[in-house]
Write a structure and sequence with these properties.
The protein is α+β, with helices and mostly antiparallel strands. It has helices spanning about 15-25, 55-65, 70-85, 155-165; strands spanning about 50-55, 85-90, 95-100, 105-115, 120, 140-145.
Length: about 170
């Protein structure tokens, strides 16, 4: 066995292209669906929704939120729309994001499904009054964990309004 090279054989571009063609084209992971056609839920029940801008991807995310969390998502979305006229929306990293169009200030909040609650992230939450209860490793970010039946709509609306008036997070 002396003198045998342990290097793998070189593969040409044409051979690589042929192998890829044999396997067939793979669909993009935009919104993965289970064989039943339902949206795939990631850990904690967070829906896997394609990145997109505007109301449609946010509404798809909210519709795919499991159980009571979908109602919380609809309520959060309605409160934000009512409190922040002209709010812009997107789904990024499998979470709805909300921002202000004015002067391209960036994003002011997002939410995400966890196993037992919905986690709202205020990107400049340390500047809100009163400060939302959940601490973060990032000094400006604060969290609000909403468990079933525990949404304080008036407080959330006050935080959403304040957050929308602060410089947003560019993402």
């Amino acid at each position: 066995m002396a003198g045998m090279s342990k290097k793998p054989a070189q593969v040409t571009e044409n051979e690589t292209a042929a192998r890829v063609a044999e396997k067939g084209a793979r669909p993009r992971k935009s919104a993965l669906k289970a064989p039943s056609g339902e949206v795939v839920l990631l850990s904690g029940g967070n829906p896997q929704i394609a990145k997109g801008y505007g109301d449609a991807p946010v509404q798809a995310y909210i519709a795919a939120m499991p159980g009571w969390k979908s109602d919380v998502g609809r309520r959060l979305d309605a409160i934000i729309e009512r409190t922040v006229p002209g709010v812009r929306k997107a789904v990024k990293w499998n979470s709805p994001f909300y921002g202000v169009e004015d002067q391209d200030q960036g994003w002011f909040l997002s939410f995400h499904c966890m196993t037992k609650y919905v986690k709202v992230a205020f990107f400049r939450g340390a500047s809100l009054l009163p400060v939302p209860p959940g601490a973060s490793k990032q000094k400006d970010v604060r969290y609000l964990d909403i468990h079933e039946g525990e949404l304080n709509e008036a407080q959330f609306a006050a935080w959403a309004k304040q957050a929308s008036q602060l410089p947003g997070e560019k993402m």
